[in-house]
Input
Amino acid sequence: MCLKKIAFSVFLLCSFGATAMAQNQTVEYGSADELKDVTKVFVDTGTGMEARENITLEIRKKLREAKRELKFVSKPEDSDIHLRFAYETQTAHGGANPGGVIVKTPVGTVVKILGKDRVRVLMSYRKERRGGRIGIGLGKGKPDIEFAREFVKAYLAANSIS
Output
């Protein structure tokens, strides 16, 4: 009976290890210059539909001002690049709260998918917060909108008319 439990435990451990190994991607580093001639974009915010909507609306607005356009696709495989935006959470200890404080840091990346297990990072965004407050206002201080604006700057620079 004990041997069956050990064998089952080893099997589970190996299957989890194989799954974890399969999820590792090879990451290459490129530059925002590779945004040249990009036409289709997939915006990945996980389950955060509001952040996705904010990002796509801001990009459309800024590109419309520059008389440019991008197509936003609903399937990752239909895109030239992926815009990924999420919040990393950490527990910070100390201060007035002895149990710690949860700190959410907005992180965004623009990646080009090169293959099943290969991506190239073209640009990244990380907003470190002071005091743990989230800015509220007309787009000022909203991390998802700031990420969209940084992307638009890089995209327009790479696709400038010479």
